[in-house]
Amino acid sequence: KARNSHEPEFLQAVQEVAETVLPYIAGQEIYSGKNILLRMVEPERAITFRVSWVDDQGEIHVNRGYRIQMNSAIGPYKGGLRFHPSVNMSILKFLAFEQVFKNSLTTLPMGGGKGGSDFDPKGKSDAEIMRFCHNFMAELCRHIGPNTDVPAGDIGVGAREIGYLFGMYKKIRNEFTGVLTGKGLSWGGSLIRPEATGYGTVYFAQSMLETKRDSFNGKKVVISGSGNVAQYAAEKVLHLGGTVLTLSDSSGYIHDKEGIDEEKLAHVMYLKNEKRVRISEYIEKYPNAEFHAGEKPWNVVCDVALPCATQNELDGDDAKALLANGCMAVAEGANMPSTPEAVSAFHESKILFAPGKASNAGGVATSGLEMSQNSLRISWTREEVDERLKGIMKNIHDVCVSYGTEGNYVNYVKGANIAGFVKVADAMLAQGVV
Ligand code: NDP
Questions:
Q1: Cα–Cα distance, 391 to 216 (Å, whole number)
Q2: Which residue among 114, 220, 272, 296 is the active-site one?
Q3: 79: which of 40, 103, 271, 286 lies 20 to 30 Å off by Cα?
Q4: CB-based burial label for 217 (10 Å; 0-12, 13-18, 19+)
């Protein structure tokens, strides 16, 4: 704790795992006295580097690039790149740590990592984004590779950025390999990868609802965020007969009482992915909806909440508001969006609560499927990938139930942490102290 006292998000993520895993370790002779968790919290390698780039006016800027290679016990490091001004060591270490457990849960052979930069893509031209991505990869390329470390997208890094990053990797290394996931379909990408995190989150929530003999049909759903994860979570909720009431971005949220249907969602995708503007523009086309500047959607009456924007976006008071309004299930599409106070409130009230490392694992799982397709040099159909994704999410749900059941309540946080831990810990034990 002392060594990382200046890294609050990282401590928060470790604390949550320690609270559930340490009591488990204490009861298991094979793990005791091996300091396994102590070894897991120290990254195998953490790299920072300078990224200088020139803007359209000819001015030179300097940002900091990072790659945290957290754990490679069960496979090459795997995890996204985030471009956002808030990026720092604490945030990336928390994300990399969570990624180790998440990747273990997918049942695929992937270690954990995360990276990115404090570069702010908002308001930048396409040419500026390209120059930044190229200069970022000019350094990162020496630390990654298809059998070493395979980055993907995250906040601020979507298909466009992955394209520029891949282009520079290929130029420098002179090889066409599956070194990044989230690639375009014509150059090694996988069908369903763009949809996978959002779809997977809803598949997981559906499995939770099924334990109560319930479903999404007719449910009122509030979603935060309007990026990759939020858009496809909304799409899958609509497929399953639910009503999506809200979406948001860092400027506020929109509340459409009539529901955000497929046509309206297509407009959101246009605003966010092509026009790249604020979510408030939604009400220009749909004036019956409301825009709440600077607020989050957690006061809107709903049955299910899907936080899909960023860490710590749902605090204890937000959780109380959701519970008071009768919310019965929360599944995290984002990483660690609920604060510890919010998680405690959900557990105390015994509603269904899925932590991101379980419910949003569909993205990295499908990245794992992209890696397999690249290695085999084949492409699976949309249906094949979606079936595998569904199967993986069902498996993750079921393993959480088997490790997390306490009486007649399933503590999915405990289940995910212990199930994720066991596989990595066993591999580390087998490989010795290295
Ligand atoms: P995008 O960049 O596509 O979208 C992010 C969304 O969250 C935007 O609506 C953005 O609003 C909002 N947001 C970001 N930062 C903040 C902030 N500080 N305060 C309020 N809103 C914010 O990212 P993704 O959809 O890919 O990622 C969303 C979450 O899901 C992240 O926690 C990410 O780690 C997690 N995740 C993503 C996966 C993936 O496959 N993409 C896989 C697993 C987890 P604005 O545009 O105003 O910034």
A1: 18
A2: 114
A3: 271
A4: exposed
What pTM does this model have? Answer: 0.97
Number of H helices, E strands in the chain: 15, 14
pLDDT in tens, 106-159: 999 999 999 999 999 999 999 999 999 999 999 999 999 999 999 999 999 999
Choice from 155, 231, 272 to test ligand 1 binding pocket (greatest atom count within 8 A of CB): 155
Q: Where are the alpha helices (DSSP H) in 4-158?
A: 8-26, 36-40, 89-105, 126-140
- Is 269 exposed, middle or buried, given 0-12, 13-18 or 19+ CB atoms closer than 10 A? middle
- Is residue 2 scored above 80 in pLDDT? no
What's the gap in Å between 225 CA and the centre of ligand 1?
6
Atom of ligand 1 nearest to the CA of 95: 34
Beta bridge partners of 80: 152
**DSSP string spanning 378-397?**
----HHHHHHHHHHHHHHHH
**Active site includes 219?**
no
pLDDT of residue 32: 85
- Spatial distance between the Cα atoms of 421 and 177, rounded to a whole number of angstroms: 30
At 316 the pLDDT is 98
Please say whether the structural domain 42-179 has been given the CATH code 3.40.50.720.
no
The response to whether residue 63 sits with its C-beta less than 6 Å from ligand 1 reads no
- Work out the average pLDDT over 16-35: 93
Q: How far apart are CA 137 and CA 142, in angstroms?
A: 9
For this complex, say whether ipTM is above 0.95.
yes
* Domain 195-359, second-level architecture: 3-Layer(aba) Sandwich (3.40)
For ligand 1, whether the C-beta of 249 sits within 6 Å is yes
Q: Do domains 42-179 and 195-359 have the same CATH topology?
A: yes
Domain chopping of the chain, boundaries: 42-179, 195-359
